[in-house]
C-alpha cells in the first residue's frame, strides 16, 4: 500500500485547461484559452498583462462568478480536491467567503453604498451561520488590516480609497479563507497608498497562511510581492515561472516588451519602449502565435504554427523561439 501524499505537496488550487468564452455579435470570443496552473498553500501568484488579455475573466472563472454572456466551455477548477465548475450554486455558496474570498477591483462599487461597513460584515457572517460574537469578529478583522473599528459604523463614501480597499480585504478575511483572489485592488490608489496596502497584505499572508492570486497592471507590485508570475496574452499564458527569474531573464518577447515599458529606479537610465500595435480581437484570433503581429523577433512560421508552452529551465514559455526542434534554427525574423 503506497503512503498517502503529504497534504503540503497537494496543490490548493489546480486549474486544468480552463476555457471561457463570451457570446458576441461577431460570434464566440475566446477570452481564456485552455489555461492551466497550480497554486500551493500560502503562495502569492501574480498575473500581469495588457487590458483585454483575459486576466480578470480568468479570476472570475476560477471563483465561478461569471455571468452571461460569459461562460466556462471547458476545463476544471479543483479547489482543495473539489471541482468548482461542476458545483451547484448552493454548494458554491458554502465555499465562497468561508474558504475562498474575492476582493474586487473597485471597493466603492463592490461595497453597498447605503449600508454601513459593519452591517455588510454582519450580512456575510450571518449568511454562513456564524453564531459567535459578530461584533467582536468584525472589530478583529478591521484591526488586522489597520483600520480603526470605529469605522464599522461608517458608510463607504465616508472612507478614503485606501480604507475602503482595506475594508474589502477585512471582509475577505472574516472566515480566514485558504485562498484570496484579488482583482487589481490597488488600481484606484496613489503610489503611497498602494505600497502601504501591499505591505499590509503580505504581512497578513505571512501571519495567516492564505494563498493569493493577484491581478495587476503594475509590474513593480508583482516584482516585490509575488512568488510566481503568469504573463497573459490573447487569453493564453505567454510565460509562467518564478517571479525573480521572469524579471531577470524574460524568455517571451511579450514579457520583455512589458518590462521595457516599465521604469526602474535602479541601474542606468534607459529609454522606455512601448509595444507597437494592439492585442488581438478575441472574436477573430489570428492563426499561429497571437503575438506575432507585434513581435520584433517574429519568424515566417510564427504566423502559421501555434506555439505550445515549452519548459525552459523550469519556466513555461509559449514561443517558437524555445521549441525544442527550432532552437538554433536559421529561420530569420520577418
From TrEMBL:
The keyword Transport applies. GO terms for molecular function: ATP binding. The keyword Lipid metabolism does not apply. Keywords: ATP-binding, Nucleotide-binding, Transport. Transmembrane segments: none annotated. InterPro entries: AAA+_ATPase (IPR003593), ABC_transporter-like_ATP-bd (IPR003439), ABC_transporter-like_CS (IPR017871), Oligopep_ABC_C (IPR013563), P-loop_NTPase (IPR027417). Residues 15-259 form the ABC transporter domain. PANTHER family: MALTOSE ABC TRANSPORTER, ATP-BINDING PROTEIN, OLIGOPEPTIDE/DIPEPTIDE ABC TRANSPORTER, ATPASE SUBUNIT. This is ABC transporter ATP-binding protein. It comes from Streptacidiphilus alkalitolerans. The lineage of its organism: Bacteria, Bacillati, Actinomycetota, Actinomycetes, Kitasatosporales.
